[in-house]
Write a structure and sequence with these properties.
heterodimer, A: mainly beta, B: Porin, signal (chain B)
Chain lengths: 249, 394
């Protein structure tokens, strides 16, 4: 099934694409999940603020996934819900429910390079991984954190992306994203992401319990800590409808 | 007695369900920049509000009960000191459908400067000048969520009167409005059964809503009358109306196009009003993380009689600056210019930022320029104000 990875006459682009497809394949079929997480925002001086949120996700085959983020902290945005339909090629569809006005507001997803909740994650970093979003190139093999890895370059196909390219480290055994470097539009290193504490779910799906995004240019960082994930929770399309968004808790 | 027994039988399930308690409270200091027009009015005003929220769910989350209360105490204006149940409803959800019963709040529409289509809830007029604060509306609402859109039918069995500043309050006409003696066209008065239907759908980059309302107008007309002391008074008159509405939002590159239009039939007369415009976003201005949005909206109303129509041929220009910082700092500033009278305009600023997880500050300012007695904003010509609020969330 994955024998193409070993063929020696392959171009760097073909090999990169094959690795990316294998990465996507290994993370297919998880269905739906719910989770609780914290986002810890740190400035260059080391001051920190904690955000709390819950996440509901639904896997959509042949398109991007659906995700619903419900904010619990800071308290002034408690009850705010962010609904996102990721798409492979077209811009994501996104809505925000603002409890104060009981208003569901459509968000321009071209704003994808903008910060998510004042963090070092951009909106596009929160979107699901889809093959069509990038062109790939295999660069080299390397060892990261003691794990044999492929190093790939992925260039966003969307001109509205805030990145000129990403360099990613994917481990050879499980095809998990270990590390990513994000380069800004001027091709300077902007951010570095590292995933820690991988945990296995449903005997097949690896999820990092901790993700650190460090901004090389301003010294700020954001840590994403997963407190809990549940799979097979029975979510359906009906849970990701802007009509029910105002009753989300 | 029977109800009491069934209530007691019901209580254990409620007691077992976890009740979430949250809400907000604030202290607001308002300062008016000019001396008042009328002797009872003051220049400074302190006001506080408390808005608790209770929520519980049961039956595997298919049922939930939400309560949102509101109480304001105002230093000067007894009419502005008021309490309201903003929401108190039971939501029952099925697969692709939902029923909401109780007091609720509904928002329809897309534009920023004016909310024409939004008609379910009455405006809580003493709260703010922008009309975005609403009173709780009793209703039964049935919603259907389908591939072809979301449809909701509303039955509204009880009407809420608009609130107005009292004699000691500012932002009012020369004669305070007599909210104790409203006049209704419907012989059922506030018990007239109103109904409405709305369909809303997303088609790619387009969000479209269609709505229809039949019932008591949320916007009153005013009748000059006399009270028991034979002093002149303004009594609100609530006619019956039928209103069809459309609201559209379209994403086009960096542009967001917004439009709302209504056709209303009131007292055997038809009129049309619309508001439309765009928002344009500069993301990451000058290589920073700031976003700057420009807003422009044109407001039109074809009613000749201008007495209570503010937005009849006006242009709103505004800018929203989003700092994208940890504190969520935002500034919205704008101006609404009357295109019929060059000397009639209003300016506003809304700024806010978080202090920490519990506290937030907010600054609001409204400046009115109106030397035109024919315009309703003439009543506010001396009511420019700045308000600083400290909000607490729990």
């Amino acid at each position: 099934m994955t024998c193409s990875l070993g063929s020696y006459a392959q171009s760097a682009e073909d090999k990169g694409l094959a690795i990316a497809k294998e990465r996507k394949l290994r993370d297919s079929g998880w269905g739906d999940s719910t989770g609780e997480m914290s986002m810890i925002l740190r400035n260059a001086q080391g001051d920190e603020v904690e955000r709390k949120m819950r996440l509901k996700s639904l896997e959509i085959t042949n398109d991007g996934d659906k995700a619903l983020t419900i904010f619990d902290q800071p308290l002034d945005v408690k009850g705010t819900a962010f609904l996102s339909f990721s798409h492979a090629i077209e811009p994501d569809d996104q809505w925000m429910y603002l409890p104060k006005l009981s208003k569901v507001k459509r968000i321009r997803s071209r704003n994808k390079s903008g910060p998510f909740m004042g963090s070092e994650f951009a909106f596009e970093d929160m979107s699901s991984f889809e093959i069509e979003k990038y062109t790939f190139k295999y660069l080299r093999d390397a060892t990261f954190d003691g794990q044999a890895s492929f190093v790939l370059e992925q260039v966003p196909t969307d001109n509205d992306s805030g990145y000129s390219k990403q360099i990613i480290w994917v481990d050879k055994q499980h095809y998990r994203l270990l590390k990513a470097e994000f380069y800004d539009r001027k091709d300077s290193l902007l951010k570095e992401l590292v995933n820690y504490e991988f945990t296995l779910y449903l005997d097949k799906y690896w999820r990092p319990m901790r993700t650190e995004m460090f901004n090389e240019q301003n010294g700020k960082s954001t840590e994403l800590v997963i407190h809990q994930i549940n799979f097979n929770t029975g979510l359906s399309d009906n849970d990701f409808n802007q009509g029910t968004l105002k009753n989300v808790r | 007695m029977k109800t009491l027994i069934s209530l007691i039988a019901f209580l254990p399930t409620i007691a077992l369900a976890e009740i979430e308690y949250s809400g907000s409270a604030a202290v607001e200091q308002r300062y008016f920049l000019q001396d008042a027009l009328y002797p009872q009015q003051e220049r400074a005003n302190l006001s506080v509000y408390f808005a608790p929220e209770l929520y519980t769910r049961f039956n595997d989350g298919n049922d939930s009960i939400l309560f949102k209360g509101f109480y304001r105490f105002d230093q000067q204006d007894a009419e502005r000191t008021h309490a309201d149940i903003r929401e108190f409803k039971w939501i029952h959800s099925g697969n692709e459908w939902q029923v909401q019963t109780g007091i609720s709040k509904v928002f329809w529409g897309q534009t920023e400067s004016l909310h024409l289509v939004d008609i379910i809830n009455q405006t809580d007029g003493v709260e703010s000048i922008d009309g975005e604060d609403k009173l709780g509306q009793p209703m039964v609402a049935f919603s259907l969520f389908k591939d072809w859109g979301n449809t909701t039918v509303f039955v509204l069995p009880y009407f809420r009167e608009r609130t107005f500043s009292g004699n000691d309050g500012r932002l009012r006409p020369p004669i305070a409005i007599d909210t104790d003696n409203p006049i209704y066209e419907s012989e059922d008065e506030e018990k007239n059964i109103d109904w409405a239907i709305r369909w809303q759908h997303t088609l790619g980059d387009w969000d479209v809503g269609l709505s229809y309302f039949d019932g008591t107008s949320r916007d009153p007309d005013f009748v000059l009358s006399t009270n028991e002391l034979l002093e002149p008074s303004l009594r609100p008159f609530y006619p019956q109306i039928q209103q069809a509405g459309i609201d559209v939002l379209a994403l086009m590159g960096g542009w967001t196009i917004k439009f709302e239009g209504i056709q209303r039939k009131v007292m055997e007369q038809d009129f049309t009003a619309f508001v439309g415009g765009f928002e344009y976003s500069f993301v990451g201005l000058f290589n920073s993380i700031y976003d700057v949005n420009w807003l422009m909206e044109y407001q039109y109303d074809d009613r000749e009689d201008l007495t209570n129509v503010v937005a009849q041929n006006d242009l709103m220009l505004g800018t929203r600056l989003v700092f994208n910082d940890i504190d969520g700092t935002q500034i919205l500033a704008g101006i609404v210019q009357d295109l019929d009278y060059s000397n009639v305009r209003a300016g506003f600023i809304e700024a806010s930022s978080r202090i920490n997880n519990h506290w937030k500050w907010r600054l609001d300012a409204w400046l009115f320029s109106s030397d035109e007695p024919a315009e309703p904003s003439y009543l506010l010509r001396r009511d420019d104000y700045v308000q600083f609020s400290l909000e607490y969330y729990f």
